[in-house]
Amino acid sequence: MRELAGHPEAWAAGEQVVAVANTRANAHLKRIEQVKKFCLPGEEWGPESDELTPSWKLCRREIHLKYGQILDGLYTL
Hints:
The protein contains three helices and no strands. By secondary structure, it is mainly alpha-helical.
């Protein structure tokens, strides 16, 4: 999974999704609410990796602990 996250084609696909989102879904959102940056984590999330509960809900505290610096970087210009 880590190799895929760093692969140029994966990033290109992510950029394409963001571009489509900006023209469709984000068209109804304020500029500040629109997707501008994204990140591809290098590991798959699941209940066994602590990012998701056994019922597949997000564990926000765990995500913040593991990815806080990355998330902060997404919100800086």
